[in-house]
Write a structure and sequence with these properties.
Layout lengths: L6 H9 L3 E12 L2 E2 L2 H4 E8 L5 E6 L2 E6 L6 E2 L5 E6 L12 E9 L8 E9 L1
Antiparallel strand pairs: 1-2, 1-3, 1-7, 1-8, 3-4, 4-5, 6-7, 8-9
Length: 125
């Protein structure tokens, strides 16, 4: 019997060749400000044409990919807030919408979950 694909590869296989139409981010804010691009990013969702959103969720040193819609923003009292919305320039994820995903490869994390993700995107559609 053939082994099942690791979860990240199974998700990626369903989005290769599709247009990336939007990116949603969840970011930590405190005192009305946020840290830089990488420091404030908690989760992100890649919205491909014709399939549910792909959520990228860090789990320790690993990256988990799953089909899941963005959650609502929430307040954490004295610890700040989590804001959820479209990726905004100059953040790097804001540059992705409008491209076709040509290929994707998980970066080996030593388990069935990747440590990162390598995306090869086509020209703007």
């Amino acid at each position: 019997m053939r082994d099942a694909l690791p979860p990240a590869e199974a998700v990626l296989r369903q989005v290769i060749g599709r247009n990336l139409v939007a990116v949603t981010e969840a970011r930590h804010w405190s005192g009305g400000r946020r840290s830089g691009d990488e420091e404030s990013l908690l989760h992100f969702w890649l919205h491909f044409q014709g399939v549910p959103a792909v959520m990228a969720n860090e789990s320790g040193d690993l990256l988990r990919l799953q089909f899941a819609e963005p959650y609502a923003a929430y307040d954490m009292g004295e610890f700040g807030e989590t804001r959820v919305g479209p990726a905004q320039r100059p953040d790097l994820l804001a540059l992705l919408p409008g491209h076709r995903l040509l290929n994707a490869a998980p970066i080996d994390g030593g388990t069935t979950q990747p440590a990162g993700l390598l995306l090869r995107l086509g020209d703007h559609e």
